[in-house]
Amino acid sequence: MVGSVGNGLADLANGAVRVNGAGKAAALAEPLPMELEQPEAVAAAMAGEGAGKREIVMGRNVHTSCFAVKEPDADDEETGEREATMASVLALYRRSLVERTKHHLGYPYNLDFDYGALAQLQHFSINNLGDPFIESNYGVHSRQFEVGVLDWFARLWGLEKDEYWGYITNCGTEGNLHGILVGREVFPDGILYASRESHYSVFKAARMYRMECVKIDTLMSGEIDCADFQRKILQNRDKPAIINVNIGTTVKGAVDDLDLVIKTLEESGFKDRFYIHCDGALFGLMIPFVKKAPKVSFKKPIGSVSVSGHKFVGCPMPCGIQITRLEHINALSSNVEYLASRDATIMGSRNGHAPIFLWYTLNRKGYRGFQKEVQKCLRNAHYLKDRLRESGIGAMLNELSSTVVFERPKDEEFVRRWQLACEGNIAHVVVMPSVNIDKLDYFLNELVEKRATWYQDGISRPPCIAKDVGVENCLCGLHK
Amino acid sequence: MVGSVGNGLADLANGAVRVNGAGKAAALAEPLPMELEQPEAVAAAMAGEGAGKREIVMGRNVHTSCFAVKEPDADDEETGEREATMASVLALYRRSLVERTKHHLGYPYNLDFDYGALAQLQHFSINNLGDPFIESNYGVHSRQFEVGVLDWFARLWGLEKDEYWGYITNCGTEGNLHGILVGREVFPDGILYASRESHYSVFKAARMYRMECVKIDTLMSGEIDCADFQRKILQNRDKPAIINVNIGTTVKGAVDDLDLVIKTLEESGFKDRFYIHCDGALFGLMIPFVKKAPKVSFKKPIGSVSVSGHKFVGCPMPCGIQITRLEHINALSSNVEYLASRDATIMGSRNGHAPIFLWYTLNRKGYRGFQKEVQKCLRNAHYLKDRLRESGIGAMLNELSSTVVFERPKDEEFVRRWQLACEGNIAHVVVMPSVNIDKLDYFLNELVEKRATWYQDGISRPPCIAKDVGVENCLCGLHK
């Protein structure tokens, strides 16, 4: 195998790109210069994800070590070698996935699933075109599973089968894009309100949809500050309100007080002039199983709820569930004869495998299974928070959450190794079903050990995180 | 296994929904009424897709026979039975997929692929968060493969590695949504122009993005009518133009004349005040391999190209490739510390499996492999058109296309059996690599045989399709 680890920009700069083309390819409509470069050392490419290579570069096209596509040689004898190379790339890639999966703590993904029984379906191009409830002419779909899953979620959130509409989305972002779009179609001149700790897709939606958007302050916990919310809606009395309510914020896992949001709206004279979208990306599926938690339910005047499927449920690829009131969908629908289907989704073609993954897990675990897992996650999150604080590390855990926020580790290499999500001086671990006590101990021991070396000189000190999590949760030199 | 085939609305109406809950579930935070219904006869549910059940119903929530999620019984002994039932549902579902895959002609999906070597990766939650070119902290990703695939496509369309930006999307619709959004960010007051035969996602984008949108007439072939285009841009001289150019329309496979569109813009005084998005959902990947075809290339003043990955390439789930100029992306980007990544994608979380499927096929087939397949498809499409016309059935095939348009079969059951996409009096077959001569013969023989019975009474007659495909392609009583 000739070639070097592909580094696009460097190769171009060095004039080192090998071209396979014109001569051999006389039969082609137009010869395409095609690189022969292929990772010589796959392991090195994997290691290319290591420290020092990551940087946020605006407006530059940074090619990290990638696996270039290699044009097959005209000589068929090489096919065997080619297949072997691809197999070895994949085997090494798989090994890196195992390693990376083992050291994952920062993102709210349940990495613990076994969909072996569904591998047989990978041979099919399963596509749920258009509306889940209306057959299209394309027969290779999984609507039977999709609707089963949607029924389960609609019921979880208090809507009957003939009252809801929904679909399986590609991710939490699509759920937010859909919910906010429905809100805008219901109230075309509505203003979008969202707390500043809302997921960035909410603000992306405002920009995409050309909606006026007002950011609301948050409490220390990360919840929306309803006093600030009231001030701001009163300044815009004349326009309807479209509100994004967070059922678990991205960074702190804070749950906005839905009942207080509704009360604030009603007391401010908005009555029927509001639309609430609940972004339940992570917690939308956990909160129904938490005792004493406020209820997310369509029995209350909300318009839509979205939740991710690859987070608490666990799924090989991102996906989500979007549920809204059937009455809202007519505002959004347009009939498209081509598909023999109306289309009220954002994406017209939709992954038909995701609903089967979800259906499979819901059937296997059921309500009781999820409840057990939620309880385990909450217990383990408390364990992590307690042990962090025992070790002198500032940490916060919201009551309804399994997201433990703590002092950002000083060493970026450590952050990357454990795949922690960070913001300013804080980092977080989201305790998912795949995160057990053993894994937490492994992490904690490593953190405590490393931390001793980071601050051993006595000069550099752990950051103060009082402004992020409150004085009572900070254990810096000042607040200990 | 108790229960009946789940028909949600009917069950609710009959009060026949069995509830499993309150009593047993005292330990739950809140008992969720959970149905026990489960398909008794899975085959019947599969048959539930049969004729007569399909209808376009606006504003009603039509539950076709779905596989309801069944709450596991508290009694663990049932686990074995439960697993067996799920396995049998899946086995029967798989059988229906095999059958439906065999009788598929109408949608532009290549159903012929073998990704067995990638089944090992289904155990991982692979998520390419944010930008493909910038590492996020989440380590279980496939950017190495994604960037390799993007490089291949950028090169195919004439952009160097340091000149382009792109990502693997969830489908052709996301590509159009992205391309048009980039256009709008470059020209915030631009008007969107698209031929009336453009994919419906283009008009959806206009509505989502609150853009003024002008529909352009088409020629009989389905191509954009540049005379009408010129008239309409001249009426709106003061505003920049954002144009969707179709590289293969959905229904007729027509390729808009990109060079003529550019010439029209320049002659009408638009010079630098335009942005062209090329919707190459199907043909974006075929056209580079068609001799004498006009070139889609960034050497021309275009802004973005999108193509679907599940169409000509073939992929278990919908996906697509979006390529644009790097300089345009800064307009769209915003830095998001949470992901340690800027985010210029529509969906923040992205399916990490799709790039690996694409990478695998590109490597195996290469430029030459695709060229052979394109040529085979074009040959087979000609064969189909010729045989249809020999049989007295009106049909049209655009020069650069493998989409054969013909008289809509009278019987909806037949249309469904072969999964034909229809519009008004016409239907089409898209000849993909998975459609060989044997399959076409099978279809043709059945069509000719059935057709003889549809029109044997001498009273009903085949529809005239002259207004859809031109007098010269119609073989109705009047135009024979």
From TrEMBL, chains A, B:
GO terms for biological process: carboxylic acid metabolic process. InterPro entries: Group_II_Decarboxylase, PyrdxlP-dep_de-COase, PyrdxlP-dep_Trfase, PyrdxlP-dep_Trfase_major, PyrdxlP-dep_Trfase_small, Pyridoxal-P_BS. Transmembrane segments: none annotated. Its cofactor is pyridoxal 5'-phosphate. It catalyses: L-serine + H(+) = ethanolamine + CO2. GO terms for molecular function: carboxy-lyase activity; pyridoxal phosphate binding. Belongs to the group II decarboxylase family. This is Serine decarboxylase. It comes from Eleusine coracana subsp. coracana.
